[in-house]
Design brief:
96 residues; 3-stranded parallel beta sheet; extended; alpha/beta
């Protein structure tokens, strides 16, 4: 069950999730430890969309050498770090 950040008293059950907005997270919520947290732009419950994906053929990727895999993972890591930093700083730029 989701517990809104405004209703949080410091303790929730192990099965509950603390729900907060991006601003609530930045302005104090990020310091909360030991609780499952869900952050949404407006602090409302996330909407789960069931998407049916039909795959006719498995997607195959070429085999990469260890060095190529490391380079690809480092590039992906840099992209993910930039995306997280943009979310934290409130930036709207980036890729979709």
């Amino acid at each position: 069950m989701y517990i809104k950040y405004s209703d949080f008293t410091g303790v929730i059950s192990e099965s509950d999730i603390l729900l907060m907005s991006r601003d609530e997270f930045i302005n104090g919520g990020k310091g909360i430890k030991g609780v499952c947290i869900s952050v949404t732009p407006d602090g409302n419950e996330p909407i789960e969309v069931a998407e049916e994906i039909a795959m006719t053929e498995p997607i195959t990727q070429p085999e990469l050498s260890t060095e190529e895999r490391i380079t690809a993972l480092e590039a992906e890591n840099a992209e993910l770090r930039a995306a997280v930093e943009a979310l934290i700083s409130g930036s709207t730029g980036g890729t979709a």
